[in-house]
Amino acid sequence: MTWSRALKEATRSGLTIERAKLTPLIAIRGTVGVAIVLGLCLWRGNPALAVSSAFGAFSAGIVTFQRSMRPRPVLALAVAGALAISTFLGYLAAAHVVWFVLLLTGWTLLAGMAWAIGPVSGLVGTQTVAIMLITVTLPTSVLGALEHAALIACGGLVQAALIVLFPVRPWGIQRDTLADALAAEADYARRLRHDPVAPFDPAPLMDARAAATVTPRQARRRPVQLHGPRGLAERVRPVLASLADPVVGAPLEGPERDRARELLGAAATVLDAVAHAVRHASPVRLPPEAVAALEVPASGPMLRGPARRTAYRLISLLADAVELTDEPVEATRPTTEAERGHLLRPSVPRLVPVALRALRREARWSSHVLRHALRVAAVAVAGYLLGAALHFGHGYWAPLASVMVMRPDFAQTYSRGVARFAGTVVGVTLAGALMALAHPGAYVSAALALLCVFLMYLLMRTGFSVTSACIAAYVVFLLGIVGAGWEQTVQERLVLTLVGGVLAMLSYALFPAWETPRLRDRLADWLTTNGRYALAVVDGYARPAERRPRQVRDALLDARAARAAWEATEARAEKEPVRHRGLPLGGAHAASAALATMGRVTMILEAHPPDRDARPSPGAAAFAAALRPALDRAARAVRDGEAMDWGEPHAAWERWSAEGEHEGVAVRATELLLDALDDLAEALPPDP
């Protein structure tokens, strides 16, 4: 993609208004938290403290809206503590430019590295830099700095207390995430009726797994409806695919296919009903026709062979799904660590070593997170010094604009930069015009600021340009509390925001961290993890008595993570103004489709495991022995742009096919697996 087209796409993305469900009650609760700390400080007669405390409560409220599975009060307290520390350290160094620049450099570098831990941690780090830049401009002493920091922490405490005292739809994110996974399964079942090899995006199941990972305290309070449906959704997916597949399931035409379509439609109806029950904490309501379709006729489900067994399995799983969710939602039960196992989320203190390991992993020159941290630190310092040299009086707005829009990837940085400037122009213009016409006092300015806070919380997920306009107006009204003239505020805000945005964009042009060169590595990682998943399943046929479901499950999770990493890298690379580096867009899409097919076929193979007392399959063992080194060579070939050779696995499969007639499902599924690998080799010809 050329630079002009990349910038055009980034501009369009930044100004796009996304439709999302509004949460007015949660927005009101967050606004009340800001109003409490702001009102108390104004009542005490200290506008400067009111401004800093309002920033603390406002930032704590923003973080609680993020899509994190951790308890909302914990997020509010964590961000308030980080903001308080940032503010106090900034005050200690604010009197000396050199010391403050050094502190700003180190602190911004750490904040940039926080993206290695996760997006919520990265946002918190960004907020700490912003609060350091803003509050230190309010003159005070060391004791006053402690008071400012304490009030900022108090703002987060107030937000956390309101969440505990006035819960709005508790477990709402977990319910929505699980319901989305079940609804995605229902949509998959409907698509399979018309396309027996329809693809399925595992992202909803990955999100549901993250939502099911709870802290020990959450595990003791989790509703019954959130205990079992995720596991059932995981087990239903391969059964649906196996029933629809024309090779190992129902034939492509005839009465068996009609019965398969009927079962798939009924499964979709049941899964939608279960998703609705989980989302709204209500009983499951099934239409009679769906129940009738899932009843086994006296002559059986009109299917034969593997398809017949799959149909019985599907009916049983759907019955379990309804039974698990159609319970009193008020009931809870304790969940022990042994029972939860790997789905137990570490507490905040135990999260520290996990975070340190994540930071160490990204502490290398090739890491896009480290390059982002260096980039944002350099831009923050340059913006701060440039803003101070312009003598506007509020020079922190230049580095603030840069820090708030910069992200580890090109597309988000440019789209957010455009959207922030456009939103700032609108917000500052409207707020400045209102200040000029009405000349509001401190209390009226505070009320207008709270209105902007409410609108920002309410429209949080509607687009960055809208939220930027609300934040810009909020800052104008908030500074009006301390008597900042609107004329100066508007002029400074517009000019310095433009300066900060330009610095952010130039930084990525001069010191990029492109995703495009990483495409082959991501694709090779996906091939490797898909291969491990396939080998773990085939090994179950080779040695049924030694079959290890845990190993298969871990391999599946690794394959999903690698696929998600590939899709994220591919999406970002498509928007970058760089050449494909040997992996053209068409080849990338074809390779992605081949690996997705490989995963689907392996999933179908996993749905038909042999009994533990079944005899071992020499053909499966020989096929696995030939496939393992071929996968290793293919992964290196993908990285180096060389040709792939699947000759040995094909030869092993032909011998297995000739000798293993009684292993029809395994032989047919592995043939489809080899077809997918051939498609991958065709999609990625060797570099000339």
Automatic annotation (TrEMBL):
The chain crosses the membrane at residues 21-42, 48-65, 74-92, 98-117, 124-143, 149-168, 373-397, 417-437, 442-460, 466-486, 493-514. Residues 82-189 form the Integral membrane protein YccS N-terminal domain. It is a multi-pass membrane protein. It is found in: Membrane. Its main location: membrane. Keywords: Membrane, Transmembrane, Transmembrane helix. It holds the Pfam family FUSC_2. InterPro entries: Memb_transporter_dom, YccS_N. One of its GO terms (cellular component) is membrane. Residues 384-506 form the Integral membrane bound transporter domain. This is Uncharacterized protein.
